[in-house]
Amino acid sequence: MKVRNSLRSLKARHRDCQIVRRKGRVYVINKTQKRYKARQG
């Protein structure tokens, strides 16, 4: 999992990416391609 400043660019990399907020942190998750995983904060 990568920790990044901006997650908007990561969301555009794959069409299945979703931005999720959990416990005050922002995550990019992808069910089909597990390598697109990131967190912010």
Say how many strands there are: 4
Strand content: 35-45%
Order of helices and strands: EHEEE
SS element count, helices: 1
Given helix and strand content, the structural type is: mainly beta
**Assembly form of the protein:** single chain
What count of domains describes the coordinates? Answer: 1
What is the overall pLDDT average?
A: 92
Shape: globular
- What percent of the residues sit in helical stretches (DSSP H or I)? under 10%
Uncertain runs with pLDDT below 50, 5 residues or more? none
For the report, how would you describe the main beta sheet? 4 strands, mixed
CA-atom Rg in angstroms: 9 Å
Give a written overview of the molecule.
By secondary structure, this protein is mostly beta strands. It has one domain. 10% of the residues lie in helices and 37% in strands. The chain has a four-stranded mixed beta sheet, with no helix packed on it. A hairpin with a 2-residue loop joins strand 2 and strand 3 (25-29). It starts with a strand and ends with a strand. The model has no long low-confidence stretch (mean pLDDT 92).
